[in-house]
Amino acid sequence: MRKHDEYTQRHGLDEIKVAVTRLLIETPPGLHVPYEGNDPQVAAAFPQGFPPSYGSGLACKGLASDGGIVLYCLTDRGPNGDGPAVALPGTKNMESKIFPAPSFKPSVGVLHVSGERAVLTSSLPLRSGDGSFASGLPIPQGTLGSADEMPLPDSLQTDPALFSMNGIDSEAIAYDPVENVLWITDEYGPFLLKVDPATGMVQKRYGPGSGLPAVLAKRRPNRGMEGMTFDPSSALVHAFLQSPLSDGKAHYALTGSDEKVERYAAFVRWIVFDPATGATRKTLAYPLDHAAYAKGRTGNAKLGDLVALGAGKFIVIEQGEGPDGHIFNHLMLVDINGASDIGAYGSALERSSMRGKAVDGADWRAVTPLRKTLLLDLRRIGWLAEKAEGLALVDAHTLAMSNDNDFGMKTRLFDAAGHAVADADVTQVTVDADGTMIDGARAGDVMRVSPGDPDERALTLWMLRFAAPLASLSLE
């Protein structure tokens, strides 16, 4: 695909014209993540370690002395992949994630964009409030923010030492130039972190019941607070969950059956947070259309990031598996003016959105969600990666967008001959505490991390320059 292209799309808005510049992010060799396991095949597949992944979040810092653009960029919790279910005596099977580099520290990078190049110039690990380095490992079970998943080394042997109270799963970043602070979302809690850009120190952590709505503690594991932006026109932070809340089952009118709330609720929660008071001002509803997602499940939504345009307008990455079974990635124009504050309602509102009637005093039919419309279909202009995750407003006409390349790795199942098992779902395999596969795999099968799909491994930056000023776009 060519590096520079121009496109025109129309989706109910006025004609949208955009010029696209596609860049590969250049990273120093020293930022590869060393493999910490003992599997010679994994070591051979990643001789330099796992490639860097700084595309989970983007924020514009400003202009460099040479006229180039300087962006903050963000890793997530580090190299990890889907793992098997873990069977432990006396407990239900636990979901797991495999961490082949458990010493990884979530980090903020600085990206210099000039001409034909996007170069990662520095990286700063995050630190907890006591000065110790943050970890990407899950928070212990029973602790606020626990993802209820078992971290495993790539030997698959259960190791309780892999939990960390300093765990951060960073997903989005925003910059407040007036206060000179970074805002970072942590998917574990979900938490909102106030960070010193000079030291990487977390100055303040806000969580459910402590600055953030308590109901957010019901976020679906690994679908916590994903997108976030700082709106300089109001000095407020806006953030949303990646998918609907998880809260058992509720009657779903469209199927006539009890279904999981996380699969069929009609909206995602969006918060408006005031840094001056350390409190959430209001909660809004980002609507999801069940017909837009595979099997009619809104839980297949994986919202990415957002940017503020001012006057209550935003651009949001909405993506997920569509009804045709293929991934879609859209930029949506969003207007929150006139949207209802749903902060007084707990998860009964999600249940009401499924049932089509009031539940425990919460009535989805009385809620005015925010408005949205399709701005740009990214797949139609050549986007290939599954996850568009970083979005930043560079100037009045320009967005920067990055992908999460998952550190170039993916967990796969291999047969005794060393061939990848086609269409194998590693999460359907069960292992015991010693890492022995006891269900869902054949004798001789081996589970290990390996290079990801070609379309996913590259760390890319797209510069999207729109013909019209972005703030001039309107849903009217």
Question: How would you characterize the overall build of this protein?
Answer:
The protein has 476 residues and is mostly beta strands. It has one domain (4-62, 80-104, 220-472). The chain is 5% helix and 40% strand. It contains four helices and 32 strands. The protein has helices spanning 40-45, 261-264, 348-355, 454-457, and strands at residues 4-9, 16-26, 57-63, 69-74, 81-82, 85-86, 95-98, 107-114, 117-125, 149-152, 170-176, 181-186, 191-195, 202-208, 211-212, 225-231, 236-241, 249-252, 257-260, 267-274, 279-287, 306-310, 313-321, 327-335, 371-377, 388-395, 398-403, 409-414, 430-431, 437-439, 446-451, 460-466. The strands form eight sheets. Strands 1, 2, 3, 4, 8, 9, 26, 27 and 32 form a nine-stranded mixed sheet that branches. The longest helix is centred in the last third of the chain and has 8 residues, at 348-355. The radius of gyration is 22 Å and the shape is globular.
The count of β-strands is 32
Calculate Rg over CA atoms: 22 Å
Q: How many domain modules?
A: 1
Distance between the termini: 35 Å
From the helix content, strand content and strand pairing, which structural class follows? mainly beta
Strand content: 35-45%
Binned, the helix content reads under 10%
- Low-confidence regions: none
3D shape:
globular
Q: Number of helical runs?
A: 4
Mean pLDDT: 95
Short description:
The protein has 476 residues and is mainly beta. The protein has 4 helices and 32 strands.
Characteristic key phrases:
globular; nine-stranded mixed beta sheet; 476 residues; five-stranded mixed beta sheet; mainly beta; 5% helix
